[in-house]
Amino acid sequence: MLAVGRAGAFRVLSLAAPGVPAAFRPGTFVVASPGDDRLAARAWWIHRVDPASAFGPTIEVVVDPGSPSGAWFADLAVGTRIALTGPLGRPFTLPRQPVAALLVGEGHAVAPLLALAERLRARECPVTLLVGARDEKHLLAVREARRLVRQVVVVTEDGSVGHRGVVADHVGSLLASSSAGVLYTAGRPDAVRAVASIAASSDVPSQVALEVPMPCGTGLCHGCVVAVVGDDAVPRQVRACTEGPVLPGHRIDWEALP
Ligand code: FES
């Protein structure tokens, strides 16, 4: 571990990760093995990559010290060696033609969206980013996003910054005002379900990076199963770590998710 930075209530871990930046695509993740019998492996979305830093190829991941494993990792000393596997999982699919995109994330789930915004911008897609959090301390990457995308809309539950409320309150109007042809979101099923549903009811396709427990991250343990409906309309189960974590929103069986 090269550095631990602060981003409001979160910690941003900078890690030397040879080979990861070169294969990285937004939405992919790494699995960190703490080397401590008390903690399971932890999956982190890759937030940023730098293929050629002064320390070689590096990545950044966002950790919430308010969670048990997050506190453990955030307290590690710089220089600690962490076993990392990645990048893993299926990334966001990028449009072939320029199309307006709405990106929606709350709290640390904004982590995979910044690099996605960069790639969309490189494809000349006008990007609107809707960032939510319970309060100002839990807003992530707003300043960087303002330099990167056409429009950033901020929502906090306590109204300390931006609009008061939750992101779902603003998705419908932003889909309309931005003329978005695609919606990208990331987060826990309970957090992104309403967002994906609004996109569906607006006939806008969505790509959803699901945050579910991933005990192994490599397809072996079946601890990350997600119910989906296939192109053939047949219900089935997929593993979020190998067939996801990014899935088309209309394929996810939201009723079967926690
Ligand atoms: S996390 Fe083990 S199979 Fe997906």
UniProtKB/TrEMBL annotation:
<feature type="domain" description="Dihydroorotate dehydrogenase electron transfer subunit iron-sulphur cluster binding">
    <location>
        <begin position="214"/>
        <end position="252"/>
    </location>
</feature>
<dbReference type="GO" id="GO:0050660">
    <property type="term" value="F:flavin adenine dinucleotide binding"/>
</dbReference>
<dbReference type="InterPro" id="IPR039261">
    <property type="entry name" value="FNR_nucleotide-bd"/>
</dbReference>
<keyword id="KW-0285">Flavoprotein</keyword>
<dbReference type="InterPro" id="IPR019480">
    <property type="entry name" value="Dihydroorotate_DH_Fe-S-bd"/>
</dbReference>
<dbReference type="GO" id="GO:0046872">
    <property type="term" value="F:metal ion binding"/>
</dbReference>
<keyword id="KW-0411">Iron-sulfur</keyword>
<dbReference type="InterPro" id="IPR037117">
    <property type="entry name" value="Dihydroorotate_DH_ele_sf"/>
</dbReference>
<feature type="binding site">
    <location>
        <position position="216"/>
    </location>
    <ligand>
        <name>[2Fe-2S] cluster</name>
    </ligand>
</feature>
<feature type="binding site">
    <location>
        <position position="241"/>
    </location>
    <ligand>
        <name>[2Fe-2S] cluster</name>
    </ligand>
</feature>
<keyword id="KW-0408">Iron</keyword>
<comment type="similarity">
    <text>Belongs to the PyrK family.</text>
</comment>
<dbReference type="InterPro" id="IPR012165">
    <property type="entry name" value="Cyt_c3_hydrogenase_gsu"/>
</dbReference>
<feature type="binding site">
    <location>
        <position position="224"/>
    </location>
    <ligand>
        <name>[2Fe-2S] cluster</name>
    </ligand>
</feature>
<keyword id="KW-0001">2Fe-2S</keyword>
<dbReference type="GO" id="GO:0051537">
    <property type="term" value="F:2 iron, 2 sulfur cluster binding"/>
</dbReference>
<keyword id="KW-0249">Electron transport</keyword>
<dbReference type="GO" id="GO:0006221">
    <property type="term" value="P:pyrimidine nucleotide biosynthetic process"/>
</dbReference>
<dbReference type="InterPro" id="IPR050353">
    <property type="entry name" value="PyrK_electron_transfer"/>
</dbReference>
<feature type="binding site">
    <location>
        <position position="221"/>
    </location>
    <ligand>
        <name>[2Fe-2S] cluster</name>
    </ligand>
</feature>
<dbReference type="Pfam" id="PF10418">
    <property type="entry name" value="DHODB_Fe-S_bind"/>
</dbReference>
<protein>
    <submittedName>
        <fullName>Dihydroorotate dehydrogenase electron transfer subunit</fullName>
    </submittedName>
</protein>
<keyword id="KW-0813">Transport</keyword>
<keyword id="KW-0479">Metal-binding</keyword>
<dbReference type="InterPro" id="IPR017938">
    <property type="entry name" value="Riboflavin_synthase-like_b-brl"/>
</dbReference>
<keyword id="KW-0274">FAD</keyword>
